[in-house]
């Protein structure tokens, strides 16, 4: 067609492949507004992605959920909060839970998302039965979320509960008792007593309890700084 640009002559499959290489969601949003063909190419590129990270992006509930729903091949999702980044609420977690990819996710990071509660986390986690790695540190979750994770994520290998001050030893014990593939748990900044950590290692002696600056002797139950 006369006046048609070279890029407009590209097949849709190749156009989508080019858009896969764009990591900025601002740039993708602008590209999708160029024309109908580019909008379709952006959608197809999202469908090919196995990893999505919104960390550092100014995203809201609806736009985040919409992009995740397009990414039907997704395996790893990072919507961690940064200084200028995502502020997702339970509404956003509900929307994300409707995505086709949700049952295939192996890694989710909700680090620092102070706008979410147990209600949204439980709703999302109940559909992530392939999850292996979860970072939910810096949030206000309670044992209610840990119970849901324990019941829904039998493949879980690592979990970050950094500064989750509302979780208790009961939640941790329940989690470790049910998630027998769990290899690592980060409990830095929690208010869990030392006796609980000993109980966790009694259930799973090979479990790595972070931070590494603490070591536990299950037999004699002392706690001392690592050297």
**Average of the residue pLDDT scores:** 84
Strand order of the largest sheet: 1-2-3-4-5-6-7
Beta-strand percent range: 5-15%
Gross morphology is elongated
GO cellular component, one term: SCF ubiquitin ligase complex
Domain F-box: 7-40
Organism: Rhamnella rubrinervis
Protein name: F-box domain-containing protein
What would you say this structure looks like, in words?
The protein has 227 residues and is of the alpha/beta class. The protein has 2 domains: 1-48, Monooxygenase, CATH 1.20.1280; 50-225, Leucine-rich repeat, LRR (right-handed beta-alpha superhelix), CATH 3.80.10. Helix content is 38%, strand content 12%. It has helices at 12-20, 25-32, 36-48, 61-70, 90-97, 118-125, 143-152, 169-178, 194-203; strands at residues 51-53, 76-78, 107-109, 133-135, 158-160, 184-186, 208-210, 214-216, 223-225. Helix 5 runs parallel beside helix 6, helix 6 runs parallel beside helix 7 (143-152) and helix 7 (143-152) runs parallel beside helix 8. The termini are far apart.
